[in-house]
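haha ok so turns out i had the wrong file open the whole time. this is the CORRECT one, sorry everyone. sequence first:
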Amino acid sequence: MPEFDASMLLSGRYHDMLLAGLWLSIQLLAISLVLALPLATCIALLRLSPFRLLRGVGFAYVETIRNIPLLAHMLFWYFGAPELLPEAAKQWLYAGNTEASCAVIALTLYTAAYMAEDIRSGIRAISFVQMEAARALGLSFLAAMRLVILPQAMRVITPPLISQTLNLWKNTSIATVIGVAELMYQAGQVESASFRSFESFAFATSAYLSLSLLITALAAWFQHRYPPRAL
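then structure:
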């Protein structure tokens, strides 16, 4: 039975490859989260709009995105969507880190669809009387949302959004199918080069578990510090 060789995880080329993969995974998480949150808020407001056409646009987005697996999203945005771009835009895209850019697009759009539903549910938890009162004071729909409804809904919305962040972190591993050199990709590369399967994937598993537990602890702390209130 082969012994666990921890030295390859502590220093050397394989150590650097795994750390580089972990750092890229964290970057995918951070960038996708920053982009997904405002997009999800816009989609949620579309879903709650008083205009039927806008509600329909929001509904179509959420149902379309959520009913397609993330793997299909990832493959479409990498292999399919760039072919639809003008030649200049295509050249610009291919000049950079195309794999990572396409992964961010797929993760952002996919995560935003789920976050939008969490935000919509949180907004609907606020008594409609408050919206009526805000409108009676002369505020527009968007101003009432921004100044009255959303600040109160944040306490309800934040715990499920943290859960979606946890899902987003785990979903970054799917980017390996389009060649993004994130953590799972680098673990596979290390395993192929060193034939040390256990050590390489133990590092990847530990990294995913550690950050997941950190996000879960953050959600638990928030719920304890800011429990939902009757609104």
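The CA atoms of residues 70 and 110 lie 7 Å apart.
again sry for the mixup
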